[in-house]
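re: the backbone from monday

yeah here it is again, tokenized this time
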């Protein structure tokens, strides 16, 4: 956990993600990435130079039209004195039963973003923290290149002028394998996703491709992110 804290702090400092007086909504899906993000920011808050508040927000997809069980995440938030908001949605019903989307991930992501932005504003937050890590960045870059024929990635920090919200991604220096190991070691309350599209997406294909390339050429995710930083792609330049 010490290494994750150190690298998260470095990313926050490098990209000036957090300022004094910020109220940050942490998007908590229930997966390992968002839970490590929540724990890391809660721990960081104890000694970081800037004083900031945290609100944890979960969008309940209501898979199979049933409320999700996030009680253990609530216990975690209570232990840190963090407000926890669960926002029920009809996303599963709309995407899978009504629209019967053949490519559900893109629409789901857009709809979740809109709901999360609204929930964050309602909670009085000026920033939203998302759990994207270094491997996510490399995969997104390669997906954009191979699928959309464009060079680009999400940015470490993005200001949404229409919402007056700033999106930050404090885990961008952390590897997915580190997050997986820490989640298991700390016994964090992961909520298994019931999404029918799990492990059957373009991102999974890209993840496998990166693994194959890394076996031949070395650590491809580190190289992709390093290239984005040196090239200043999508505000990755420090």
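seq for it, each position gets an aa:
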């Amino acid at each position: 956990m010490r290494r994750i804290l150190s690298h998260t702090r470095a990313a926050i400092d490098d990209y000036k993600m957090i300022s004094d007086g910020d109220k940050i909504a942490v998007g908590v899906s229930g997966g390992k990435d968002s839970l490590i993000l929540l724990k890391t920011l809660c721990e960081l808050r104890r000694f970081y130079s800037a004083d900031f508040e945290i609100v944890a927000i979960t969008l309940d997809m209501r898979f199979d039209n049933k409320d999700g069980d996030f009680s253990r995440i609530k216990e975690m938030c209570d232990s840190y004195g963090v407000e926890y908001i669960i926002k029920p949605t009809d996303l599963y019903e709309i995407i899978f039963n009504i629209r019967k989307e053949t490519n559900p991930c893109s629409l789901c992501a857009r709809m979740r973003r809109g709901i999360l932005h609204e929930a964050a504003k309602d909670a009085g937050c000026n920033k939203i923290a998302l759990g994207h890590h270094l491997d996510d960045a490399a995969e997104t870059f390669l997906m954009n290149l191979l699928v959309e024929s464009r060079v680009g990635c999400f940015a470490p920090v993005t200001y949404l002028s229409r919402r007056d919200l700033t999106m930050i991604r404090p885990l961008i220096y952390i590897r997915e394998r580190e997050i997986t190991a820490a989640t298991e070691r700390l016994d964090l309350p992961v909520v298994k996703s019931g999404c029918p599209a799990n492990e059957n997406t373009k991102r999974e294909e890209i993840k496998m491709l990166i693994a194959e390339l890394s076996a031949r050429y070395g650590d491809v995710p580190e190289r992709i992110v390093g290239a984005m930083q040196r090239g200043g792609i999508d505000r990755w330049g420090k």
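The chain has one domain: 2-235. The mean pLDDT is 94.
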